[in-house]
Amino acid sequence: MPTAFRDLRDYLDRLTREIGDSAVRKIDGADWNLEIGCITELMAEQTGPVLLFDNIPGYPNGYRVVSNYMGTVAACAVAMGLPADTSGIDIVRHWKDLSGRLESIPPREVTDGPVLENVQEGADVDLMAFPAPQWHQEDGGRYIGTACMVITQDPDTGWVNIGTYRGCVQGKDRLSSWMLGSRHGKAIAEKYWKRGQACPIAVVVGSDPTLATAAAMPAPPGISEYDLAGGLRGEPVEVLRAPGTDLPIPAHAEIVIEGEMPPVEVESVHEGPFGEWTGYYTHDGPETVIRIQRILHRNDPIILGAPPMIPTFTPGDQAVPLYSASVTWDHLEASGVQGVRGVWAYGRQMMMVISIDQRIEGQAMQALLAAAGRTRVGGVDRYFVVVDDDIDITDLNHVLWAMCTRADPAESIHVIQSVTSAIDPRLSPRKRENDDYSMGIMLINACKPFAWKDEFPVSNRFDDTYRAEIRRRWKSVLEA
Q: DSSP letter at 172?
């Protein structure tokens, strides 16, 4: 069963209890201006621990920043309420099974919570009071919103939507936001704008991993991410009504920025550039601005940061890829693909790898086509690879070995047309001008040829049983 976290602090404490003191590394004295961002990047490349930055120059002690918060498979396991030593594939399998029986649990409204410990209003509003980092060298500003929850409410139906959109500090009382046109938050805002009204909005900076993950999940229209988070947690999310907008906000949030968002034609600001999750700068220009009316925050507030960086091809940074892998696995089975043994994502889902037990001719291509048929709106899905079930798809070396030895480029690789996203660096300037998002995707069959798979040369790798025995007998040597 899922294990509910009270808040971000509870998650950090549980990581320490279940993994050990090394799970959360405390760093004192790093500057908000690039140092925090660079340290985060270096540690993420090593699949390092959660980073907790404190004593940030120019800010009170206790005003902290957390990054790399689900950067290891062990951290993802704890976030899902599983034992820390759960394997990556078993986490995906758990998430897939949980999603299949997930029941929405609406939030529970309360009248008080830690987020109300401090309230800035009117002339006292000061977004600069928080150590929002400049994450990359060429960023156009300080991004306080990288793992944030942006809350809006449909004026017609009352549907509460939560999304994750980047947010840049534009002054004491202004925060910019870039919402892709396909996002629900943008659609809700446009309803207000058509009525000549600014859109009420609340931005949550600092929440537990279940809430942060639910905010990034593509819930169907009319379904609140609060309900999904409740289902993942196994109990309702506690919310309270924001003092000005009356929007439901997490009672245990670290920081909530409350205000209104007028249409770009009424007020805008130059937003970006920002180093996005593809590892490139692809967008900047006039975007929406949030007029901040109120800031609520806890004592010793924590900014939760998930700065995009060049995608790693290690198991790290797997919060969203693990979810995407589980959804793809579900989709494959729903499409009638037999013998699926696992799905894994690399490079922030830009490469999806599927493991199958080959039973019939054509099964590998069926799996590829089915997976490609689930490409995400706004995603940059690029490569789909299918391998035999003797390949450890959580190890990129094994995947590359299969691609290099079992795929014949003349007959095993297929390119088909699909669509991509505005953040795709491969879109040409001409395509951008014409709103043309067409892009090819590659299907790679790296399975043994079915017709003679039983005659395929035998691998020289030790079998899993003997490897496990050696790991157990020689643990002190292998894990030193």
A: T
Name every residue whose Cβ is closer than 8 Å to that of residue 100 and which is 6 or more positions away in sequence: 330
Token match 């067409």: residue? 438
Read off the tokens for 326: 């589980």
Q: Which among 442, 430, 439, 419 has a CA at the least distance from the CA of 180?
A: 419
The reported pLDDT for the residue numbered 58 is 96
Alpha-carbon torsion angle 118, 120, 124, 130, nearest 10? 70
Task: Compute CA distances 256 → 110, 227, 475, whole Å.
Answer: 16, 20, 46
Gap between the Cα atoms of 146 and 136, Å rounded: 12
DSSP 10-62: HHHHHHHHHH-GGGEEEEES--TBTHHHHHHHHHHHTT--EEEEES-TTS-TT
Locate 433 and state its tokens: 């001008």
C-alpha to C-alpha distance for 196 and 194, rounded to whole angstroms: 5
pLDDT digits (tens, 9 = 90+) for 264-303: 999 999 999 998 877 778 888 999 999 999 999 999 999 9
Cα distances from 241 to residues 125, 162, 166, 258, 305, in angstroms, run 19, 15, 23, 11, 25
Q: Where are the beta strands (DSSP E) in 374-437?
A: 383-388, 413-419
Question: Which residues, 6+ apart, have CB-to-CB distance to 460 below 8 Å?
Answer: none
User: Which residue blocks in 315-414 are alpha helix, DSSP H?
Assistant: 319-334, 363-372, 396-406
Per-residue model confidence (pLDDT) at position 312? 55
Residue 278: count of CB within 10 angstroms of its CB: 21
Residue 341: per-residue pLDDT = 93
Contact 91, 221 (CB under 8 A): no
* Sequence-separated (6 or more) residues with CB below 8 Å from residue 333: 340
- Other beta carbons within 10 Å of 404: 9
CA–CA gap between residue 436 and residue 433 (Å, rounded)? 8
Q: What is the mean pLDDT of the chain?
A: 88
Strands 351-356 and 383-388, sheet pairing: parallel
Cβ atoms of residues 413 and 472 within 8 Å: no
CA gap 215, 224 in Å, rounded = 9
Q: What three-state secondary structure class fits 151?
A: strand
Question: Quick check: 314 pLDDT over 60?
Answer: no
Q: Which among 87, 93, 86, 84 has a CA at the least distance from the CA of 11? A: 84
What are the pLDDT digits (tens) for 105-161? 999 999 999 999 999 999 999 999 999 999 988 899 999 999 999 999 999 999 999
**Count of alpha carbons within 13 Å of 204, Cβ hemisphere only?**
31
**pLDDT category of residue 316 using cuts at 50, 70 and 90:** very low
445 exposure class (CB count in 10 Å sphere: 0-12, 13-18, 19+): buried
